[in-house]
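Data card: per-record layout.
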Amino acid sequence: MFMADIAGVRVLYTGDYSREEDCHLCAAEIPQFSLYFNSEKMAKTIRRLAEKTLEVGESVSGFLVKKAFTCQIMALDDLHVFSQLSTENISQRITIAYNGAFGVLKHRLKQIFESVESLPDEESEGPAFRVHEWLTVKYESEKHISLHWRSDPISDMVSDSVIISILLILILITSYC
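The structure for this 177-residue chain is written out next.
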C-alpha cells in the first residue's frame, strides 16, 4: 500500500497482488489517522552494574544487549551468565629463525618504533626487550628469537609489523653476505 500523487490528485494504491482488481481510493475517501512513536529507549543495568545506584548524569561502561525488545547493560564479567558467549585472553608466541646479532635487531627496531625498552634479565631468561609495551622479543638461541604478545587488535598490528621488520632485516643480512 502506498500513496501516489497523480495529476494533482492524491491516490492510495492498495495492490495486494491477488486475482481481484486493484482498489484505488481518492484522498477524500481515506480516513485520517496519526501514529505517534515514543523514541525513548530504556536499558536496565544488571548484575554487577546494578549493585551501585547511579546519580543523574553519571556514565556507565558495559555491553548493551538487546533481547526480545528489552535492552540490558551488563559488565564484561557478567556476559557468560546471560549468554553463551565467553571472553578469553589469548597469548600468542612465534619463534623465528634469526642468525643475526640480537643488538642489531634491537637497534633496527628502535629506528622504526618509538618505544623499545630492554627488560631486566630476572624478568626474562636471557636478553629481551619490549616493543610498545605490547610485544616482547626474546633471544632464545644463536639461531632463534621468539615474540610473545597478548592478542588484541593493536598488539596483533604491532607484532605483524615487527615480524615483517625482522624478515626484512634477515633479507638485508643475507644479501650482504
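Known properties of this structure: The chain has a mean pLDDT of 79. The longest helix spans residues 153-176.

See the next section for split statistics.
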